[in-house]
Specification:
Number of helices: 23
Strand order of the largest sheet: 2-1-3-5-4
Number of strands: 5
Number of domains: 2
Largest sheet: 5 strands, mixed
Radius of gyration: 25 Å
Strand content: under 5%
Order of helices and strands: HHHHHHHHHHHHHHHHHHHEHEHEHHEE
Length: about 500
């Protein structure tokens, strides 16, 4: 497993800062990790939209890249911090594969399918909470299926799954599947104790989050504050959906088409294998995980996030490999008539692996090559360097508007968090910010115009005014992906 892990991590690390193009979610999670490290407020108001454990973990991992490579843009520090998460997830795919009955070669194939899928290579580079949640969920499955059937393994499985939910709440849909795995992994004489221990670990660990909200007076909805239950109600029933996956033109339809364009083989093959693998008892937990996650993703009217498929990928790889392993296992171990074909199963396994490689390798190579050689983010490198190095006066007294990705770079350059470095969305949305800029756009000095800002200016009046009353002083890149630094014209300037 170890050489394969080095290979998988190397593919993620190669060109990690230059592809794919960063988005505001990455900036938000990294800023929240920075807030944990420094005891400050991030640019994004916390309203219980996600549990905090994901960026607490990110805070523990991201300080080292920031210390070793301070001149890189901050989002690159966050992406480098995701590499240990990638290694842990890939190792746990191997471990879970072994615990559902795969031999070492088959478990290694599952690791490779997971490690080199173009979807995984791209999503694992980005700063997503789902990547943390998947690691803890896989750890929970590995503990629930432990061959030692130790009670404390089952208690730890409950705690691990609670940490998965506290990293990204959407993975909670896998709880019934994990209970199936625990049923299979426990001894019938001690199963009651195993489930009690699992429940104790799950509840006692998971209760930290509602306890945190209760102690802050933010568990129940009320006037003048956010709340855990109020946000949960919004997430379940009040949030605008992505439309039906099966309706042309909806956000969900476009997103799923993008997933299939990147890797149709693992998605189609893994889903088909999961349906067939339901008939194989030892494969049932991973097959059920695929079925449940796909059913949740296909529900009509729900919200389908871009990174949702990251939760599905390890179980697709395990289901596909597990079904092939089970099919080969039904062959005779030795051919009865031909002495030259004494080892039927190894030959069949090798042939099946070769067929899979021939089928998927050209597509995967092309997509992964784009990832490891792409150069989409030079504009963010240049804008980050401009913020840090260009003489503009006393940055502690100036105000600059940025998107979520560059906000932390502005803070690192010396602009005051929140009132000096201002996230563009808060110009018209946050009373604490608007109180500091009573004259609106006239109180701003610079705007770092990124694609995200230009896409929002029609919806935010102050941002629209800033674009109308500013001039470019620096420009990086060209076309829709360019970044412009705009200086706001002051009174009397032409």
């Amino acid at each position: 497993m170890t050489p394969l892990l080095f290979l998988v991590v190397a593919v993620r690390a190669w060109n990690i800062g230059n592809y794919p193009f960063p988005n505001d979610d990455e900036g938000t999670y990294l800023a929240q990790a920075w807030a944990v490290q420094h005891g400050e407020l991030a640019h994004y108001t916390y309203w219980y939209d996600h549990p905090p454990f994901g960026w607490i973990q990110l805070a523990g991992l991201s300080w080292l890249p920031a210390w070793l490579l301070p001149d890189l843009p901050t989002f690159v520090h966050g992406r480098i911090a995701m590499l240990p998460v990638v290694a842990a997830g890939a190792a746990l795919v191997f471990v879970v594969g072994r615990r559902i009955g795969l031999g070492r070669p088959a478990a290694a194939v599952a690791l490779l399918l997971y490690g080199f899928s173009p979807l995984a290579v791209t999503l694992h580079r980005q700063i997503y909470l789902d990547n943390f949640a998947v690691v803890w969920a896989l750890a929970a499955f590995a503990l629930a299926l432990s061959p030692r059937r130790h009670l404390w393994h089952h208690v730890a499985a409950g705690s691990a799954f609670a940490l998965a939910v506290l990293s990204k709440e959407t993975i909670a849909v896998l709880l019934p599947v994990l209970l199936v795995a625990l049923w299979q992994g426990s001894h019938r004489r001690t199963r009651t104790f195993s489930f009690a221990g699992f429940g104790s670990g799950l509840v006692l660990t998971g209760l930290f989050y509602p306890l945190y909200a209760l102690l802050k007076g933010e568990l129940l909805p009320g006037a003048g504050h956010v709340s855990l239950l109020g946000t949960l109600k919004f997430q379940l029933g009040g949030r605008e959906g992505s439309g039906s996956v099966f309706t042309d033109g909806t956000d969900a339809h476009r997103l799923v088409l993008d997933w299939f364009a990147r890797d149709p083989y693992l998605l189609v093959g893994g889903c088909a294998a999961a349906v067939l693998a339901l008939a194989v008892r030892r494969l049932r937990p991973v097959a059920l995980a695929v079925v449940v996650l796909v059913a949740v993703g296909l529900r009509p009217g729900g919200y389908l996030p871009q990174m949702y498929v990251a939760q599905l990928l390890p179980f697709l790889a395990l289901a596909l490999t597990g079904l092939g392993h089970a099919a080969i296992g039904r062959l005779p171990a030795r051919h009865r008539k031909a002495a030259r074909l004494r080892l039927v199963r190894p030959l069949a396994g090798t042939a099946l692996f070769a067929a899979v490689v021939v089928a998927i390798a050209p597509h995967w190579y092309a997509k992964d090559r784009t990832t490891v050689l792409g150069d989409d983010n030079g504009v963010y490198y240049a804008a980050s360097a401009w913020l840090r190095t260009t003489p503009v006066g006393d940055r502690a007294r100036l105000r600059v508007v940025t998107d979520g990705v560059l906000w932390l770079d502005a803070v690192a350059a010396g602009y005051r968090p929140g009132t000096g470095a201002i996230w563009h969305y808060k110009l018209d949305q946050d009373p604490a910010v608007t109180a500091k800029i009573p004259r609106g756009w006239r109180d701003i000095d610079y705007v770092v115009s990124t694609p995200a800002l230009r896409g929002e200016r029609q919806h935010l009046p102050t941002l629209r005014d800033l674009f109308a009353h500013s001039d470019p002083v620096a420009s990086f890149g060209e076309g829709d992906g360019r970044i412009d630094v705009l200086k706001v014209r002051k009174q009397g300037e032409q």
